Amino acid sequence: MTTYNFAAGPAMLPVEVIAQIKADLPDYKGSGMSVMEISHRSPLYMDLYEETKADMLEIMGLDPEKYDVLFLQGGATQQFTLVPLNQARKFHRIAVVDSGHWAQRAAEDAGKVPGMSVDTVATAKDNNYTAVPKIPVEFTHDYDYLHITTNNTIMGTAYRDAAVPKLDLPLVADMSSNFLGEQYDFSKFDLIYAGAQKNLAPAGLTVVVFKKDWVHKNDDLAGLFDYATEAKKKSALNTPPVFQVYVAGLVLKWIKSKGGLKGIEALNQEKAKTLYDCLEASDLFASKVDPASRSLMNVPFVTGDKELDQEFVKAAAAHHLLNLKGHRLVGGMRASIYNAMPLAGVQALCDFIQEFEDQHK
Ligand SMILES: *Cc1c(COP(=O)(O)O)cnc(C)c1O
């Protein structure tokens, strides 16, 4: 029986990518060394870095003359501090949209940067985070930027591209849990960051994509924390996570082989529809998320009975459907169905949901 991992992160990687890693691991491109051993100053890595960056921008439809990519460590969480530290320098005031837990963590950490004001300009508190709040386009103060979270990993809500307006204000997005999982007009964003461990690579890599003309060197920041310095040093001011960048490179090739973001989104739409349809058809299980705000990536659901939820998670694991326990903040179950989850995995989950329901009638 095939095992399917529904974890929110670290999450599944494509089986084809795992197979490629296995084949490459002892000897990277005939160097006699594993990719885990090669120097980040070697031409081998420089080629890998350039190709990975070029593939990423190509997939995103962004012009390499205008956009840059950083491959950093520290997770998306570190960007909660680094974005305001680098980019909130004129007004020292930023606007945030409160669409859920991670959006709140980002706002909280931004507020700890000395002298920084953080205004919540929209919140989903009123609907208990079951829908995303509308992104405002007019503001009563001057802000350095607006921060949004495109996919709310815990609540299971998301902004589709059409829900992201073109703003006069610079727009920053935490895309950790739907990065390269669906199409966006990425040119609407001035800076995007994402922890890799959900949809791109193993944990240990954080990607930052930004508009070059928005990012300037800050002499008061240590080089490691300064976007412009990192960009100038090709993300290798200190030792970068070479292995993670290599895996990200393989995942990007895999995305291209699926028809780029258009192809990937079609697959993800089909998977999500399959799962939401089976939850809607069920008398026992339900999704509480507003259909207009449904995430393609993270699908929380409940039976309404905590003990039964626990029983389901346990029984599912015995059927090789792993890590379906919901986040402690919302309880119940959560199926994370990122890019690497095949449709067969979602179908197996739906079959099991049906089976469990039949047994508990
Ligand atoms: C997982 C997650 C984070 C935290 O990521 P780390 O890389 O562990 O710091 C931040 N934002 C969102 C939306 C997430 O899903």
TrEMBL record:
SUPFAM superfamilies: PLP-dependent transferases. The keyword Transferase applies. GO terms for biological process: L-serine biosynthetic process. Its EC number is 2.6.1.52. Its cofactor is pyridoxal 5'-phosphate. L-glutamate binds at residue 41. This is Phosphoserine aminotransferase. Pfam families: Aminotran_5 (PF00266). Binds 1 pyridoxal phosphate per subunit. Keywords: Amino-acid biosynthesis, Aminotransferase, Cytoplasm, Pyridoxal phosphate, Serine biosynthesis, Transferase. One of its GO terms (molecular function) is O-phospho-L-serine:2-oxoglutarate aminotransferase activity. Homodimer. Pyridoxal 5'-phosphate binds at residues 76-77, 102, 153, 174, 197, 238-239. Catalyzes the reversible conversion of 3-phosphohydroxypyruvate to phosphoserine and of 3-hydroxy-2-oxo-4-phosphonooxybutanoate to phosphohydroxythreonine. Belongs to the class-V pyridoxal-phosphate-dependent aminotransferase family. SerC subfamily. One of its GO terms (cellular component) is cytoplasm. The modification N6-(pyridoxal phosphate)lysine is found at residue 198. Its main location: cytoplasm. It catalyses: 4-(phosphooxy)-L-threonine + 2-oxoglutarate = (R)-3-hydroxy-2-oxo-4-phosphooxybutanoate + L-glutamate; O-phospho-L-serine + 2-oxoglutarate = 3-phosphooxypyruvate + L-glutamate. Gene3D superfamilies: Aspartate Aminotransferase, domain 1, Type I PLP-dependent aspartate aminotransferase-like (Major domain). It is found in: Cytoplasm. It comes from Lactobacillus porci.
